[in-house]
Amino acid sequence: MKVKDKDILIARGAGEESPGVRKHGLDGFSDSRTKILHPPIETSWELPSLKEKKASSSSSVKSVLVYPLKKLRRSKSMQMILEGPRDFKDEQIVDSFREMLFVEGLLPPMHNDYHTLLRFLRMRDYDMLKAKEMFLNFLQWREEFRVDMLPKEFKFTEYTEVKKCYPNGYHGVDRHGRPLYIERIGLIDLKRLLEVTTIERYIKYHVSEQEKTLNVRYPACSLAAQRHIASTTTILVVNGVGMSNFSKPARYLFTEIQKIDSNYYPETLNRMFIINAGSGFRMLWKAVKAFLDVRTLAKIQVLGANYLHVLLEAIDPSNLPDFLGGQCSCSDSGGCLMSDKGPWNDTEILEMIQAISLRGEINDSITSEESLTPNKVDNDFRNEDDVSGKAMGPEMACKEALRKIDGLEAALGGVSYNMKTLETAIEDARMALRELEQQMEKSTK
């Protein structure tokens, strides 16, 4: 694919580009519009070839999904799998970015994780000031859109009807273990879609799916594949699509979703295959490209009817729906795009994610006291009775952690799959914290 007027540099880490790439624009001079195309956030650039897969059939996607999870649960590497390997230069600049945000009081604990900050830095080519602006816009949007309240406040009751007139969904994983997302754009009935839902409600549904992908699908795929997964492979089926499909409501829906994905969920696309592209779509594509970031364009491959061999290089046939030439039909689920098939539906994996998430909450409560300075301490971690405004001590940190455990235990009480694993994790953490509190009490006497 050709990208005019702009160059794309392929970078291996912060401030480091691949050998042989150009550092100047097409005219030989430095171009401020130059964009850097970073390797996938999982730090794995090349997908396995089909020949490699044939040589090692035992490592197919099927075997990925039946990995002995009991053995994985006992392993101390679960957290490492979820966190993934870290580039040294990336880690340095993420730490600097985190410190800058923290000093200015702009770093909520909920979005203080390494990968969230890295996504925004990568999207702005490691320019901390530009990444800061983007990150603050992200926080403001989440508050205004009430993203964190969607699970409680928003129920997409029209889900089944919407799927009939807008066939799309997650279905399995690619050969690397990333979630596979498919849309059959040529079958969208926009008139019927606007009868069963509204654009505003559909956008809320889209956001809720993005949240599920970040918080459930990526961690589940990481545990199943035993490697860090942080991006999605997408297939858009566009047969029959042309300029006539790009009506005013369709343009609005497309631009809103694109704006949300680019601005608030950056660096989550691994590759996109647009298949069955006819002459009508190719005319439309010239207009659509104007809405897309040059970095996103570099990840898109437009194919005609002869697409199957390309898809099979990236996706195992068992994870490819039969309407695309694969082997899966999901007949017991009403079709592949209704199934939401993937490791994120495995009960045992979900239990492990819940347990790891809970331990992370506890660790954050304990370590936050060490990282906070007296002048910038968050209100949630202050001793309200301390009129001097000093940060609370270790004993208060322990009590605060125990209070959070009680709240989490109560909140998770109604979840069917949390019982054994979460109860054990909660009790272990409670005992450890009480022991620590008792030791600190003794040391102060």
From TrEMBL:
Q: Domain named CRAL-TRIO: which ranges? A: 158-332
The record's listing under InterPro entries reads:
CRAL-TRIO_dom, CRAL-TRIO_dom_sf, CRAL/TRIO_N_dom, CRAL/TRIO_N_dom_sf, PI/PC_transfer
Name the GO cellular-component terms.
Golgi membrane; plasma membrane
> Which stretches does the entry tag as region Disordered?
12-32, 371-390
Which subcellular locations apply to this protein? Cell membrane; Golgi apparatus membrane
Report the sequence similarity comment from the record. Belongs to the SFH family.
This chain belongs to which protein, by name?
CRAL-TRIO domain-containing protein
In its UniProt entry, the species of origin is given as Acacia crassicarpa
Question: What does UniProt list as this organism's lineage?
Answer: Eukaryota, Viridiplantae, Streptophyta, Embryophyta, Tracheophyta
